[in-house]
Amino acid sequence: MPCTLGTFGLWLLLILTVSLVAETRTLVTPSNGLRPKMSKDNDSAASTNSSLMDRQQRSFILPVEANTSLSKPVDTKAVLSCPPITQKAVLVTIRWEIILRDKPSCTRAYRRDTNETRTINCSDETISWDPRPDRNPALQIDPVAITHDGYYRCEVVTTHGHFYHGYHLTVLVPPEVTLFQLENGTIVCRAAAGKPAAQISWTPGGDCHTVEEPLGNDTVTVQSSCCWEDHRVSNVSCSVSHLTGNMSLSIERNSGVQSAVYVKTVYIILPVLIILVILGSICLWKIGVCRKCKLKKREANSVAEEDEMQPYASYTEKNNPLYDTVSQVKRSEVLQNEADGLCLHTSYITGI
């Protein structure tokens, strides 16, 4: 009997304990089993706080850095703009970082609270900034040169966060296009010192060979040579395509060769003719001089022979004045006789 009462007491104690635990859970946990019910005022306050927190988080989210590829022809003006600033945001600082090829980084910075501008390692005067960067933070390059190839990055710090914008600047150089014909009939189209390299095409197409020659200042010279076996092709065109613009030139196939041959003939024959005239004049002068020398030698020899055969007579004729007078008289008589004979002969012919 005592054992039965003890067992019954233990079971009763266990039932009471379980019932107490169930009541405690009912008091602590709400009836829906999810969360305790709140009043309408508390729920609206919580929603307001959460919306304010979301707005604050959105206003302080850093934007993704933007990069733009920009191409500008040489000797033009380039304007690089910073990210726009909202009206509610308050400007703190503006900073430009310029990274050029084979040069140290250049930095231009402006601080609004002290109205101070700083420049570090910037020596290129063609890259300018407005005296009041807070009003116009854009960077200007005037004129653009090949050396301005590089990366330009603007950083704007405001009360609403940091904003970035970068530019990959590429400078374009138009090529100098020429079209000419060689002596063998090959036509050459050349696009010299272009950046980037130009593209060359022919109309009509022929047997063409294109070569690129890089230069030291990042420019490239492209030369295309073409031949045509068809003799009916008289006019050909060369088209050059480039980012700065396209160009087309035409040429007659034979005109260039004929003019080249004509010029070559003139330049070769004219000097030869001049040389021949000079040589002929020299030869004639030498012949005349030789003839005079021979005549003088002959006269000298004849005089010497006469002197040897009649030494005394020659001496008398040369040194005796009386002999000279007699000889003159004899000569005058001979001339008079000849004149009389001529007159007689003339009278006989005329019948007088």
Mean pLDDT: 76
Q: N- to C-terminal separation?
A: 226 Å
Reported for the largest beta sheet, the result is: 6 strands, mixed
Into which percent range does the helicity of residues fall? 40-55%
**Class by SSE composition:** alpha+beta
Determine Rg (CA atoms, Å): 59 Å
Q: Strand fraction band?
A: 25-35%
| Order of strands in the sheet with most strands | 1-9-8-3-4-5
Order of helices and strands: HHEEEEEEEEEEEEEEEEHHH
**SS element count, helices:** 5
Question: What characteristic shape results from the CA principal axes?
Answer: elongated
Give a short overview.
By secondary structure, the protein is an alpha+beta fold.
What would you note in describing this structure?
It is a single chain. This protein has helices spanning 2-28, 40-59, 255-309, 311-319, 321-350; strands at residues 66-73, 78-80, 91-100, 106-111, 116-120, 127-129, 139-141, 150-158, 161-172, 176-181, 187-194, 199-203, 207-214, 220-227, 235-241, 247-252. It has 352 residues and is an alpha+beta fold. The strands form 4 sheets. A 6-stranded mixed sheet has the order 1-9-8-3-4-5, with no helix packed on it. A 4-stranded antiparallel sheet has the order 10-11-14-13, with no helix packed on it. The longest helix has 55 residues, at 255-309. Mean pLDDT is 76; it is low at 1-5, 24-42, 44-62, 255-259 and 342-350.
